[in-house]
Amino acid sequence: EVQLVESGGTLVQPGGSLRLSCAASGFTFSSTYWMNWVRQAPGKGLEWVANIKQDGSEKYYVDSVKGRFTLSRDNAKNSLYLQMNSLRGEDTAVYYCARLNSGTHGFDIWGQGTMVTVSS
Amino acid sequence: QSALTQPASVSGSPGQSITISCTGTSSDVGGYNFVSWYQQHPGKAPKLMIYEVSHRPSGVSNRFSGSKSGNTASLTISGLQAEDEADYYCSSYTSSSTFYVFGTGTKVTVL
Asked: What backbone phi and psi angles, to 5 degrees, belong to B26?
C-alpha cells in the first residue's frame, strides 16, 4: 500500500524549533517523485509550503517560510524532513506530506497530517 | 501570490448536479493545464479527484468531471450523493516563485 506517515508535530513556543518527518512506503521514493509539504491553519484553506526534487538538488519554499524552514530527504530511509526554526503563531497548522506527480502537477498521495501549534 | 478564488459554499439535493468554479490568472489557471481538484472530509487529508483539468485518477467516480475556460476552472459533481458533502479545493501550477497555489475552498452541502 502506498503510504505517507508524518510525525513530529507538537506544541512549541514562538521562536522555537521543530523537525517534522514523513515516512514513505509502497513506492519508489528515491527516483520518481518530488515531495512536498502543504499546511492548513485551523479552519483555513490549504497552502503549499515547500518541495524537494528526487535527488535533493533543488528545493523551493513559499516566501513566508524562506530562511526559517529547511527541507531535506534521506532516500536510503525513504524519509522526508522539514526543519522549522524561528516559529511564529502564523505557522500553527496541520502539516501534510504530499507526493507530487511531476508530469501532471497533481498531489496524488497525502499523509494524515501532523499538528504544529506555536503558542506561549 | 494570491489564492485562487472559489465560492465559499455550494449546495444541492441528492441526484442533482453542482458546479464549483476556481478563478485565477494567466500566470496560473489560464497559463497551464495543470489544474487539480481535491476533496477533503472533516478531519481527513485531502484526496486528489481531478488532475490536468479534466482527468480522473483510478478509483474516482465518473460523477466528478473538470473543465477550464480562460482563467477559470470548474469541477462538476453529477448525481450528488450524501458522501460528496465535503470541502473542495482547486490547485494550479503557477509561474510565480510559489510554484503551486490552492483555491480558497468550497464547502459542498447535500441538502
From this structure: -70, -10
d(CA B95, CA B17): 33
As given in the structure block, the three cell numbers for residue B31 are 497559463
Q: Which set of grid coordinates corresponds to residue A10? A: 507538537
Give A28's pLDDT tier (boundaries 50, 70, 90). Answer: confident
Chain A to chain B Cβ contacts (< 8 Å):
66
Residue A118 in contact with partner chain B when CB distance is under 8 A: no
Residue-wise pLDDT for B25-84, tens only, equals 999 999 999 999 999 999 999 999 999 999 999 999 999 999 999 999 999 999 999 999
In DSSP terms, B92 is beta-bridged to B35, B101
Mutating which of B36, B48, B95, B97 best tests the A interface, going by the most A Cβ atoms within 10 A? B48
Phi, psi dihedral angles at A65 (to 5 degrees)? -115, -5
**Cα(A100)–Cα(A79) distance, rounded to whole angstroms?**
15
Residues of chain A in contact with residue B52, where contact means CB-CB under 8 angstroms, are: 104-106
Beta-carbon contacts of B21 under 8 Å, excluding residues fewer than 6 positions away, are B5, B6, B7, B72, B73, B74
For residues B93 and A43, what is the distance between their CA atoms, to the nearest angstrom? 24
Cβ-Cβ contacts under 8 Å, B36 against chain A? 104-107
